[in-house]
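Session log. Operator J.P. requested a structure for one protein chain; no other inputs attached. Running the standard single-chain path with C-alpha cell output.
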Amino acid sequence: MDNTMRYGALYIRVSTDKQEELSPDAQKRLLLDYAKAHNIFISPEYIFVENGISGRKADKRPEFQKMISIAKTDEPPFSVILVWKFSRFARNQEESIVYKSMLKKQHGVDVVSITEPLIDGPFGGLIERIIEWMDEYYSINLSQEVKRGMTEKALRGGYQVTPSLGYTSPGHGKPFVVVPEEAEIVKYVFDQYVNQHRDQTSIARKLNARNLLTKRGNRFEKRNINLMLRNRFYIGKVVWNGIERDGVHETFISPELFQAANDRLEATYRPKNRRNVSTCAHWLSGLVKCSVCGASLGYNKAKYPFFHCWKYTKGMHEGTNGISEQQLVNGVLEYFEQLLDGMDFTFTCRQTVPEIQLPDEKENYEKELEKMDQRLIRIREAYEAGIDSLEEYKENRRRLKAESARLAALLQEKAAAASFPDPQQHKEEMLQRIRTVYDIVKSDAVDYETKGSFMRSVVEKIVWNRATKTLSFYLYCADPKVPEDSPDSRKPA
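Structure written below.
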C-alpha cells in the first residue's frame, strides 16, 4: 500500500430522507474510515453534503458545483474525491464521464468509490462505464416507476400536491380539511372578482391592506389571485398531469361561482401593455388612443377635466389631440345607444391568453408521446442486457403501449374541440353584453373600477380624431378558441 499522504474531499448525497442506509451520517462515517485506512487527509471544509437532491442533473446540485469549482483551481487543495458509490457522484452517464475525465486529465483529481473498487487498465474502464450505465438506467426506471405510482394515485383521486389556501392536510392519506379563516379569504376573492367585478390587482391590494397572507406566508400579488380563480380543487376536483378525478374533500366554492369566475377570465382580452383599471385615474384611461400617433390619451383632472395625448405634450408630434371628459363620456354613451337602437356593427373575436400561463395539456401530451419511443428502446436494451426478465420486459412494454394509446386519445379529443366559430354568429350575445355595459357606465351609483372593467369586456380601444371630431370604436368578443389574426373592426361615433 502506498503510504504517501494525500489530501481528499468527500462528496455525500442522498436523494430522499427515506434512504436510511444511505444517510449522510452513515456515508460520512464510512468515507472517513476509508480515508483514514488509505492515508487520505480530509479537511472538514472539503466535505460536501447534499440531502434530498437527485443526481440526474449536475447544475441542480450547488454543493457538487462548489466542489468542482474548487477542484478546477490552479492548485486544487485535494487530489481525490471519495464517494460511497459512483451513483452518488452522478446518475447521468454522460455527465459522469465528462466530469471524471475533466477532473483526472486537467486537474489530476481522481473520483474513487469506496464500495466499487476498479482495476487498472481498459477492463477497469469498461467496468466503470457499465456501472455508470446501470446507475443511469436505475434512475430513469425509478423515475418512471414513481410517475406510474403517482398516476395510479391520481386516477384513484389521491392528492399529489400540497394543500391550497383554505385547506390543510391531516396526514395519513386522509382527505384535506377546510381551514375556516383561509376559506373566507378564498370566498372573498371569488365574490370580489365575480360579483363586485374587481380586477385581480385591486383584489390583491385589498387583501394586503388587511394584512392577509398567502399559503406560503407572502403578500398577495395579481398572480396569486389568477391561480386561485382557476384552481379546480375548490370545486372538488383533483387534477394532476392532465388527469382529473373527483376528490372526497369538502368544498366551499359553488360550481356556479367558479364557472362565472372562469367565464370572466376567458372573456377578458387584454391587449399588450394595457393597464388594469385599478391603476388608472379614470374608467376610460388606457382605452382612448391618439389618431396621430396611437399613444394613449392621459387623463387630466383639472377644473374642467380632459384627456390629452401625452406624446403631444412632450413635443413628440405636431397637431394637438385632446378631448374633454364630458365630450368623451357623452360620445361613448351615444355610440352604445345607437347600437342598442339597431345600428349595424361588426366586432373582432380575440383569442384570450391567460395572464398566468398554465401548462398546455396538448403540448404535454405531445412531449410525453415523443418520449415513448425512447423508453421502449431502453426497456428492450435492459432485457437484452439481462437486467430485466422476459416477463418484466413484456409488462413494461404493455404499460408503455397503453400509456401511448391514452395520450393519443387525449390528443384526438383536443383536436376535435379546436373548432373555430364564426364571430358574427355571436352578434346577439355581443349586443347583450353591450346593453349590460351601457347600463353600468351610465349609472352614477357605480364606481369607476367597475365601469372600467365592464368597458374593457367589449371595447378594445377608442381612437379620437380631433381633426374630424370622430370617435372610432374597436369592439371585440373574447373567445379562447378563435385565432389571434382576426381583422380589427371599427365604427365611428
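Operator note: The two ends are 96 Å apart (CA to CA).
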